Amino acid sequence: MKKVTFYLIFFLIFPIKIIASEKKVFYAGFSFSGNYIDKTSGIKYTDPLTNIKNENGIDIISSSLLKSVKKANPSSFKIDYNFADIEKGLEESVVMAVVLDHEDFFTEYESITKTYLNNIQMFFQIIFYDFKSRKLIASIPYDVSMPFFTKKELNESEIREYIKTFYTTGLKSLDNDKTLNAFSIVEEILNNFVLKEKYKFRAGVTKVNFEEKSIQFIPEKFKKNQNYLKNVFAQLFSSRLSLHNDIALVPYTEGMAIGAKMKQQFVNSDIIYDIELPKPDFNIEISVRGFKKVLAKKSDVNNIFFWASFINLNIFQPDLDKTFMNDNLKNVIKKSIPAQIENINDWYKFYIATYELFDGYSLNINNPNKEWINKTNDSDIFAKNIQNVKKLMEKLK
């Protein structure tokens, strides 16, 4: 069986103020973001865990997070832990919180080893904002992929127990055998993070669209809430673009809030805050044009399949009506599947194909690879547009 690795990815998004040395930042704890009409979809595993309290009466997730944050020693600000009343607040305070945006669970059965490959993906942000104005100062998103194997198919309760362990005592990484939890990377992020002057130019994903040829492959749970899936794809792209090009991005909000605002709710409060976001100078629009699965070779032992993801990327400056690129891209992954497997998780394959496409695109902006470019879009225009985007990335730094 192919080895699955544990990975943590984080990237910097949109700092707009200077926080001087020893500037006080008030720690406000763990919170959720997004549309709160239905918590049973995007955060259905984590939400019930916030009702489990430790011996001090603090929910187990907040307690685990606090331990990680207290290990940090940021160079550009000092964290104050006395921000007791988040509903009252302080007039001129800068607030820091760790936010869970969404989570998802994938599973596949490997019949030869009679093993289930499970994977839970979570998207977090460490956010800083002005408490009085509710304006975002900075956001540092990171995502966690947690793969693990089981000999039986897990039910909802068992999945939640694995997530509970991951939040608290941690799980062993399949890559290096280290025990990590969902907040292991927080200390490193805070220690390396410096809030800077606002950028002269800002960019961000402003629109995600699923065209008709893609919708038929989307699982029913996402068809009912496409805004949630749009947010996932926006974050997949933004994380890759920021990581490989060292740029700041305005968080994506379409479908998650109205009027360029990000919603936030702390686990110990019923109040939902609207955090005001800035307007990007450069827009990135993603159209998911379609998905395709092809059986390339069939035998009594293994079947070879191709899964393809097709997207369109439109990057432009609306105020000047200037387009940097508007191109169709594709990525194909190849897998050999044992012939005995009947229920293949096609959606997970399309998801991985899209992730690889976003990653390859972001890598090839600064380090263009002719073979990758030809496989993705073999037109001369695309190769030239990659250079246009490279110049844009320099403007955003």
Describe this structure in words.
This protein has 397 residues and is of the alpha+beta class. The protein has helices spanning 39-42, 60-70, 156-167, 186-192, 212-215, 220-223, 226-245, 346-366, 370-376, 380-396, and strands spanning 7-10, 23-33, 77-80, 94-110, 115-130, 135-150, 171-172, 179-180, 203-210, 261-266, 272-276, 282-297, 302-317, 322-338. Strands 1, 2, 3, 4, 5, 6, 10 and 11 form an eight-stranded mixed beta sheet that branches. A four-stranded mixed beta sheet has the order 9-12-13-14. Strands 7-8 form a two-stranded antiparallel sheet. A hairpin with a 4-residue loop joins strand 12 (282-297) and strand 13. The longest helix is centred in the C-terminal third of the chain and has 21 residues, at 346-366. Residues 1-21 have low confidence and may be disordered.
Write down how many β-strands occur, each being a DSSP E stretch of 2 or more residues.
Answer: 14
Instruction: For the record, give the distance between the C-alpha atoms at the N and C termini, rounded to a whole number.
Output: 41 Å
Structural class by secondary-structure content = alpha+beta
What average pLDDT do the residues reach?
Answer: 83
CA-based gyration radius? 22 Å
Low-pLDDT residue intervals, each spanning 5 or more residues? 1-21
* Largest sheet composition: 8 strands, mixed
| Mass-distribution shape | globular
Beta-strand percentage range? 35-45%
Secondary structure tally, helices: 10
Order of helices and strands: EEHHEEEEHEEHEHHHEEEEEHHH
Helix content: 25-40%
